[in-house]
Every structure is written in structure tokens, then in C-alpha cells.
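[Q] Does anyone have a clean C-alpha cell version of this?
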Amino acid sequence: MIPVSSKSAQPAIRVHATKARVIGASPYVKVKEYLKAGLERGTWQAGQKMPSEADLIGRFAVARMTVNRALKELEAEGLVERRQGSGTYAAELHRVSSALTIRDIHEEILARGHAHRAAVHILQKERANSVVARALELPAGSTVFHSLIVHYENEVAIQCEDRFVNPAVVPDYLAINFEHITPTKYLFDVAPLWKADYAVEAALPTAVEAKLLGISRRDPCLVVARRTHNRAAVITCARLVHPANRYRLEGAFAP
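[A] Here you go.
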């Protein structure tokens, strides 16, 4: 099952917690949290112009460099877009997705000049057990959508994707042909995410995962457990299993 714990609070609680963090915070943090809370509530929609630096300076009685620091950090997090001579705008939600570095495996494989193929083994409606229900923040026994898909690179299985989806957020999920579009790409298009949480570990595959990937149950795997949220609810939780000798995660860091 999906080993994702349900630690996120409900949206109203998150907003309250955001306000609580502002008390006693440094001036730039107060400005940043005010804007971040407004974005989370949807006060400013994607592409909408946000308060100007002058407005924020007047509202919080702070220096311009204080406001500039808050806006720079929000821009670095992918939450706002600053346009020289124009102002600050709420970022398109796909920018948030990009900042979280959630990539579509189809695009990854094509970028390497290789061929991608997906085999769909499960695509159905189910009753959520307690683990899945907690991950999706739904009552146990709620109806959820379940997909189990194996992704191939040049006909070699490199990922087993076991995913549960909240039907209230993505009602048409079961109608999609996931041999032609990946769940990640489809979900980006129809349910842009606001945030994500994930865990990465080395683990052995389950019997089902080993069979689908064509490996032994003793073969180590890289396992990613991931949840995505919109502003109001959990969209999906997924367990992504990769044979360790066929796949690696790469990235870069610069101070």
C-alpha cells in the first residue's frame, strides 16, 4: 500500500497556523506570510496582479529592502512572478509544480532520446482502506480511484506507479487512456497542484511489483512515496518503485 502518512492540516487550520507564525516574526517574514496566506486562500488567482511594493511598505511600515526580500523568496519558491516595470503577479500553478521538481516520466525518457511505453494493469474504482484514506484525507471506506501502471524505457521496465486519486478533485480519471498520456501529465493539466510532500527510500519490492518489473523480490529498489495537494484537498498519493540498477534520481544544487 502507499506508505504516506497524513500530516497535513485542513486548509482553514493551515491558514490559522500561518497567521500564528507571523506573531513575533521578523518584518520580512510578516510580509511574506501575509502574501503566502493570501495565495493559499486564492485571494490572488494565477496571473493576477498582487499588491505593489509601495502598498506593502505602507501596510507594514517597513523599508523597501524588507518587502523586496519577502518577494524574492516567494519568487524563488515559484509562488509569484515579478515583472520589471509592471509589478508582482501570482504565479501560474504549473510554475509551482516546476519549483517542486515533479517531472513527467514520459518527458524524462524522451529527453534522453529513448522511447516510452506504458502498460495499464489496474484502472478502477475502489473503497479506500485506512492507509489510503489517511493519505487522501478522506474517511475510511470512501470511494477512490486506483491505477497501477508500469512505465518502460526502450522496452525495459523502469517504474511501477501505484496511484490513488481523490474522485472529488479529478472526477474523470477513470475515463483516461493512460497508455497515451501519463497520470502525472493529465493531473498537471486538470488539477494543478499547490504543494507536494514526498519520501524517498531504498526498499525491496512487493511480490506484485517484482513480477510487474521483471525483477527478483531481493532486488533493491528506489521507492518514492508522494502526495500532491491543491488549495483545498489532497489530489493524489502515489508509490513509485524503480529498480535500483535501472534508474537514478539526479539533480543539481548551487549556493
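[Q] Thanks! Anything notable?
[A] The mean pLDDT is 84.
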